[in-house]
Amino acid sequence: MAAQERRVPLVNFNKEYREVGDEIRQAIDRVCESGWYVLGEEVKGFEQEFAEYIGVDHAVGVASGTDAITLALKALGIKEGDGVVVPANVYPSAFGVAHSGAILQLADVSPDTLNLTVRTLGKAVNEETRAVLAVHLYGNPVNIKEVSDYCKNKGLFLIEDCAQATGALYGVKKVGSFGDISCFSFYPTKNLGALGDGGAVVTNNEQLAEKVRLWRMYGEKERYESQLVGHNSRLDEIQAAILRAKLKHVDKWNHKRRAIAERYGNEFSKIPVTPVHDTSLGKAVYHLFVVRAPDRERLVGHLREKGVAVGVHYPQPIHLTKSFAHLGYRLGDFPVSEEASRLVLSLPCHPQMEEADIEQVVEAVKSFYSK
Ligand SMILES: Cc1ncc(COP(=O)(O)O)c(C=O)c1O
């Protein structure tokens, strides 16, 4: 087969399923045999195992990462009109915050990591601010100790958005264990993904965990004893059972992602693409391997011709979307985020890649610049 006919996908669900299919089928079968489909023993089991994995006392399974953010904010008592600082370049985090009723206070990010820093978020904080959403973007840890100290000093809640960072380390601790409360997404493409939607909220604070449980289902403490107008945001038993099976593999998969990222880093050191990562703070998990690429659109065309699938995360910063125009920000307000939306490019970086796939990506990128 000619090299160009060979395709390297951005993710490879089929191959992953072939790798862990037996365990997934057993998990699904267990649920079907139990005859209990929503909020049962599998969800409880996953919550315990996931809390232990992250190194926190409590995990609460919910329906998505978006809901995890909304319910976490509600559990903290964030209400209509309160300010929450959100990095301007992380499109998918915005919706969960907006649904809580909070006002998004956008902050720019560091040009090196595209993550929030104390310096960038400090510019967004004002007297309305109650909380900061620190997103470990692409699986790269934020300098969370610095951000946490800042929040403590200012009396702000810290919420970690770990949707792209299951298993990433800041120092020797997993991200998600630093905030007052932290949120995860198990959307299928995530580095721990369900076979459908799912999410979790984790915390060391028992009362906060209890509140998330109330908000997750009609505000009920006991069945039909509603204490607040809660959501319906439950994690299915089938997804929880699948996540329990996949959680056992996530460290090995993260390790593979890191090895591919290291290889790309070395291969691309002499060409004009700049990887967006920082290995100095801990261990990233490379949910995505992102580079800043001058002349991105032409490079995308070239890579597609060479059989390499790519993505752009994200083509618009939050303030330039129609949905969030009402926030009143303008072009030019967040220059690093705006530039990133024009330059960032995600290359295939997933545990099912073979040597030939990695070679093909490397060759395809390098050949663009040697033309
Ligand atoms: C950083 C981040 N936050 C939040 C979300 C929302 O998660 P979900 O798609 O599960 O609602 C995502 C997923 O795209 C994400 O990447």
> Roughly what fraction of the amino acids lie in strands?
15-25%
**Contiguous uncertain segments of 5+ residues:** none
| Number of E strands | 15
Distance between the termini: 24 Å
CA radius of gyration = 21 Å
Q: What is the overall shape?
A: globular
N-to-C order of helices and strands: HHEHEHEHEHEEEEEHEEHHEEEHHEH
Bound molecules: pyridoxal-5'-phosphate
Lateral strand order in the biggest sheet: 1-9-8-5-4-2-3
What structural category do the secondary elements indicate? Answer: alpha/beta
Number of helices: 12
Helix content: 25-40%
- What is the arithmetic mean of pLDDT? 96
Biggest sheet overview: 7 strands, mixed
Question: Topology of this protein?
Answer:
Blueprint: H1 13-34, H2 41-54, E1 58-62, H3 65-75, E2 83-87, H4 94-99, E3 103-107, H5 118-122, E4 129-135, H6 144-154, E5 157-161, E6 169-170, E7 173-174, E8 181-185, E9 199-203, H7 206-216, E10 220-222, E11 225-226, H8 237-247, H9 250-267, E12 274-275, E13 282-283, E14 289-292, H10 296-305, H11 335-343, E15 344-347, H12 355-369
Parallel strand pairs: 2-3, 2-4, 4-5, 5-8
Antiparallel strand pairs: 1-9, 6-7, 6-13, 8-9, 10-11, 12-14, 14-15
This protein binds pyridoxal-5'-phosphate.
Structure write-up:
By secondary structure, the protein is α/β, with parallel strands linked by helices. Helices cover 39% and strands 16% of the residues. The chain is built from 12 helices and 15 strands. The protein has helices spanning 13-34, 41-54, 65-75, 94-99, 118-122, 144-154, 206-216, 237-247, 250-267, 296-305, 335-343, 355-369; strands spanning 58-62, 83-87, 103-107, 129-135, 157-161, 169-170, 173-174, 181-185, 199-203, 220-222, 225-226, 274-275, 282-283, 289-292, 344-347. The strands form 4 sheets. A 7-stranded mixed sheet has the order 1-9-8-5-4-2-3, with helices on both faces. Strands 7-6-13 form a 3-stranded antiparallel sheet, with no helix packed on it. The longest helix has 22 residues, at 13-34. The protein starts with 12 loop residues before the first helix and ends with a helix. Pyridoxal-5'-phosphate binds next to helix 3.
